[in-house]
Amino acid sequence: MNLLKKDLADGISFSGEKDGHCITCLEGKQSRNYSEELEGKCLQLVHSDVCGPMSQESRSGGRYFLTFIDDHTRKVFVYIIRSKVEVFEKFREFKSQFENQTGKQIKILRTDKGSGYVNRDFKNFLRNQGIKHELTIPYSPEKN
């Protein structure tokens, strides 16, 4: 419905009209093609964080969840884990799966200084894969 024709948009500044429709409304209804997004800067920067322990276990016994977010596409991957020890294993799984799907490699992994990320095995793996590890302050999820 056109808000301008129904006099419901008095005093509101729009970016213009096209064929009697608000351009902002039309742009807001457009969808993006995911394949176009992947061609850009996909996997340049991946954010990750561990959340938990939760008071209730999942059906599989997990009390934590692990997230990986591609900064460019904002695609989110979530893994349910039982303990922080599983972070390294799930990162390797995520890396393999997403890199195979996109044909691109992770350049930077940004995490906090949690025990799941700061250990010798994880550090050596990132170095051998050529992935820069950026660390943020613990308990600041807005920076992850």
UniProtKB/TrEMBL annotation:
The keyword Hydrolase applies. Keywords: DNA integration, DNA recombination, DNA-directed DNA polymerase, Endonuclease, Hydrolase, Magnesium, Metal-binding, Nuclease, Nucleotidyltransferase, RNA-directed DNA polymerase, Transferase. Pfam families: rve. Residues 35-144 form the Integrase catalytic domain. InterPro entries: Integrase_cat-core (IPR001584), Retrotran_Ty1/copia-like (IPR039537), RNaseH-like_sf (IPR012337), RNaseH_sf (IPR036397). PANTHER family: TRANSPOSASE, PUTATIVE-RELATED, TRANSPOSON TY4-P GAG-POL POLYPROTEIN. This is Integrase catalytic domain-containing protein.
